[in-house]
Amino acid sequence: MTPTELAPRFFIAVAVILLFCKLVAWLLGKVGQPPVVSEMLAGVLLGPSLLGLLWPDAQAALFPAPLLPILYVVGQVGLVLFMFQAGYAFTSHRLTNLAGTAGAVSLAGVAAPLALGVLLVLGVAGFVPIRADDVSLGVSAAFVGVALAITAFPMLARIITERGQTGTRHGMLALASGAIDDMVAWIMLAVVLAFASGAAGPALVTAGGAVLFGVVLWLGGRRVTGYLMGFPGDRARLLGTVALLFLVAWYTDEIGLYAVFGAFAVGVVMPRSEQTDKVVDTLSPIAATVFLPLFFTYSGLRTEFALLGDPAVLGFAAACVTVAIVGKYGACWAAARMRGEPNGVALRVGALMNARGLMQLIALNVGLEAGIVNSSLFTVLVLVALVTTLMTTPLLSWIERREARTRVPAPALVTAGSR
Q1: What CA–CA distances, in Å, run from 283 to 47, 168, 182, 271, 288?
Q2: DSSP line for 357-388
Q3: Cβ(107)–Cβ(327) under 8 Å?
Q4: Is the confidence at residue 404, as pLDDT, over 60?
Q5: What is the pTM for the complete model shown?
Q6: What is the percent of the chain where pLDDT is above 90?
Q7: How many Cα atoms within 13 Å fall on the side-chain side of residue 403?
Q8: Is the predicted pLDDT of residue 376 greater than 50, yes or no?
């Protein structure tokens, strides 16, 4: 297809994606699901798992193969803007006196699913086709473990805010724990990607480039971003921020860390000010409304739930979902209880930390692009992301109803003598 032929295909595809995501968000919003959950599901439904199964000609016409790289690139723009906002949100939540408990919850929430995921992959090695070609068993196991250890911090923050629980004990604890969890998980993912290269050269480039990036960010990040926020005029600050984001995204992509790491880091070092808030508030709606749905659809087009028809893959998927919930929900709940938190607080923290959401999808696409994830493993882990994210809001509502019932005082018994 020529660029002239692709342009109208792109426009109609984007229109369909945005309208369908809005429809699914409206439907699932009636049962309390946040928009990001709906967009995740909508992306999968537009792919071969549903539209391609029921109406393959329409799916092929809407999303021809030459269009997919364009969706990928435009979706990457959304991810860069989204991860910048996530990094900026990361710095807005202070640990204060929750540091010890948040650290314990985060450590448990990373270590348990990481260990269980690695053991699961090692246990099924040779029985389930989840290893990509020329990828070692150790790298596959480590990637699955890291993917299961991820928490969707931005979505967690959004759910807490929408439910008006920002100032609650469980809300603050979940935000602090989720922020630490995501930072550790992204660092571990970078390490796995470096090892996955196999050759010493690329790994050294990644490691050396990451160290250089960290040093430059540490020494000059605040100064550069502060200078940008000092530009006169909103447009100048917006242009400078976007240019910096894309420059850093280019660098981190080139060294093998991928654009999402650089964008997140820029968000972390941005100075907290009214000017920065305005820039973030301008970019975030564009990313969430226009670009992120394209990323979800691109991910959905590579998710084939028909692969779960293989009993071995289906069994592995069920085991992965179980391990993910037990490892994250169970470990975070147990850590919070061991730190002396009430059961209600611990249950809510576990439910919030259990959601993988968009962050796991980002990690999966990074793994797929790096060649360490095959179609079967991609589909299995997308299912994990969907299940653990979909269950968060209903689970929180169930905990609230359960506590409300226990707080209702029993009616006084009326005896015959009191009449």
Answers
A1: 28, 29, 22, 16, 9
A2: HHHHHHHHHHHHHTT---HHHHHHHHHHHHHH
A3: no
A4: yes
A5: 0.78
A6: 22
A7: 12
A8: yes
CA distances (Å), origin 94, targets 97, 256, 268: 9, 31, 13
302-359 pLDDT, tens digit per residue, is 888 888 888 999 999 999 999 999 999 999 999 999 988 889 889 999 999 998 877 7
Please list the alpha-helical segments (H only) found in 65-136.
68-90, 99-124
Residue 318 in contact with residue 378, Cβ under 8 Å?
A: no
Query: What tokens were used for 403?
Result: 């506590």
Protein fold of 3-402: Na+/H+ antiporter like fold (1.20.1530)
pLDDT digits (tens, 9 = 90+) for 88-104: 876 665 555 677 888 89
Structure token digits, residue 127: 């029985």
Rounded to the nearest 10 degrees, the angle between the axes of helix 137-149 and helix 169-196 is 160
Chain Cα centroid distance, residue 203: 25
Burial class (CB in 10 A: 0-12, 13-18, 19+), 334: middle
- For the chain, percent helix, then strand, then coil, each to nearest 5? 80, 0, 20
- Contact (CB, 8 A) for 137 and 109: no
Every domain of the chain and the residues it spans: 3-402
Helix (H) or strand (E) holding 315: helix 311-325
